Amino acid sequence: MSGMNTAAPQTHSRIVVITGAGTGIGRATARAFADEGALVVAIGRRAEPLEETAAGYDRITPLLADITAEGEPDRILRTVVERHGRLDVLVNNAGIVRGGELGTLTPETITAQLATNLVAPVLLAQAALPILEESHGVIVNVSTSVGQRAWPGSSVYAAAKTALELLTRSWAVELAPRGIRAVAVAPGAIDTPIGEHQGLTPERMAAVRKWQLAHTPLGRIGRPEEVAWAITQLAAPAASFVTGVVLPVDGGAVVA
After folding, report:
1. Under 8 Å between Cβ of 189 and 251
2. Which residues are catalytic, by number?
3. Which ranges of the chain does DSSP label H, i.e. alpha helix?
4. What confidence tens digit (pLDDT) does each residue in 36-55 have?
5. Cβ neighbours of 211 (radius 10 Å)
6. Per-residue CA distances from 188 to 8, 103, 209, 218 (Å)
7. Are 47 and 55 in contact (CB under 8 A)?
8. CA 172, CA 106: separation in Å to the nearest integer?
9. Which of 7, 13, 57, 120 is the most buried (most CB within 10 A)?
10. Rounded to a whole number, what is the distance in angstroms from the first to the last CA of the chain?
């Protein structure tokens, strides 16, 4: 069956944790790592999407968790250690967008975005440090290429993701002596459900896509699998001399 995990068992399978793994980039990345032979712990808040991610992939294990809840980062990492005894790659992929121009933002809107897009990745990375140091592992943060430009109407989301890029560069320097790499990918317009999750109407989503296409030199919307490719390549053992990089996967939007 196409897309099934047919990778042969390895003497040592890498252990990968991916947040926001129920849909879009997270799902594609979980499957890409599984296809390479890794054992993947897929994190998300909803059981059904996680089960769909893992369907046909015996190397993907769903784990229900709200990464913004108190104590959850530590619980997630304890669970990973109990099940697998190690961690090689942490992918901070989960993200939420709540639109709103300055003057319309509420404390709840701001706090929710910062909690998921910025605070949770920090706490997860911090909880993972001891086991990542043992494995000389990798932290992969998922940012957004819009963070390097203006994004009127979604400035809090863009600001949080831009902060994640600065964290990536800072962690690369801080953690290098401990043998841990920190890298990031910055997706552009990708075909994921994030707009629907934001509550955009079909008409509004069509307008967003039109704007994105007009600002993407390659002239199309990207696929989650294309971002997953970048994540797996940056996290690969062959990329052992790469750290602190933020790789745009955006069809040229940043440089246009």
Report:
1. yes
2. 157
3. 24-35, 47-54, 72-84, 107-114, 120-135, 155-175, 194-198, 202-214, 224-235
4. 999 999 999 999 999 999 99
5. 11
6. 33, 26, 11, 11
7. no
8. 34
9. 120
10. 40
